Amino acid sequence: MFQRSKESLAEHGDKVVGYYDTETHGLYLTGWNRDHIHFGLFEPGQCPKPNEWFTDSEIHARAVVRMVEATVAPAEIGRQHHVVDAGCGVGGTAIHLARTRGCKVTGVNIVDMQLEIAAGKAAQAGLEGLVSFEYADCSRHLPFPDNSVDVVVNIESACHYVDRANFLREVHRILKPSGKIVATDWMARDGLTDAEYEKYIEPICEPYALPSLECPGSYRKILAEADLEILEFEGFHGKDAANVQIVENACKLMAGLMIGGMRTPGLRRLYGQVQPLHEAWSGGYFELRRYCARKAA
Ligand SMILES: C[S@@+](CC[C@H](N)C(=O)[O-])C[C@H]1O[C@@H](n2cnc3c(N)ncnc32)[C@H](O)[C@@H]1O
Q1: pLDDT-based confidence at 293, cuts 50/70/90?
Q2: Is the distance from the beta carbon of residue 154 to the nearest atom of ligand 1 less than 6 Å?
Q3: What confidence tens digit (pLDDT) does each residue in 63-92 have?
């Protein structure tokens, strides 16, 4: 039912690199969080007021770490584990896991600029012995031997991949028997009509460099086809709701600036990203979900 990208892997990879080369220092590191490029999970009552700018608050900083913890919890990562963080952003998750679990982590990413930032952060944290980073296009190949990795972490990254089925086959190949993938991803709600997908999901895809979005049902199918047994497949039970308010506040702020006469290309581009996401999320067409799946023993 859902549209599949007609772009080649190389074309889409270039689009993702272009997107993050532009947005890493702007939208994300300075406007969101300096270590984590993903949404947060909030405790009851922790919601920004309308028009409150929230993303540089302590509450927001803790919320993005809480999302890492909620995603990785089912993997029970310990110091004996080798963890691969697929689509590792600027290294926040890899560094957090090495620091809190003492495990070895290899972050992989298609964006060289982010790999450089991540390596700098690991060095600054004195964690070069445990944490390393390397280039990989997760749609194509994960640069690890068969049966060599204990846990794959994948946070808000696979939504960018042209070939998620191949990514999951690669995850299966590199995991040791009983190894796990723990992931959070952007998804379309199950059961959308083609018209709803076209109206609410497609407008998100282009501005965020996403070839398409899975829904929970299609995700379950490609996990099963990759021979990965689903142990958990869950939403966040409202703990992600404050993100919708954050996105709404950003939309209103930008709309106000544009009405006030500030119509720079950068502001219009940002508004073109955030506004369709707000429409889809607040309308219940878009959701964040996490899953844990295991390779057979
Ligand atoms: C929304 S960010 C999430 C980053 C990180 N997981 C985090 O939670 O902070 C998506 C990340 O996926 C990476 N990415 C996108 N497509 C990729 C691909 N085909 N192969 C490897 N990394 C990719 C991006 O460069 C970016 O770092």
Answers
A1: very high
A2: no
A3: 999 999 999 999 999 999 999 999 999 999
9-39+56-192+211-238+286-295 belongs to which homologous superfamily?
Vaccinia Virus protein VP39 (3.40.50.150)
Q: Round to whole Å and give the CA distance between 278 and 244.
A: 7
What are the DSSP E strand ranges found in the chain?
Answer: 82-86, 104-109, 131-135, 149-155, 175-188, 228-234, 286-295
Going by CA atoms, what residue is nearest to atom 27 of ligand 1? Answer: 89
Residue type, 62: R
pTM: 0.96
Distance CA 261, CA 258 (A): 5
Residue linked to tokens 């772009």: 7
CB 96 within 8 A of CB 34: no
**Rounded distance from Cα 235 to ligand 1 centre (Å):** 21
Answer with the residue of higher pLDDT: 110 or 55: 110
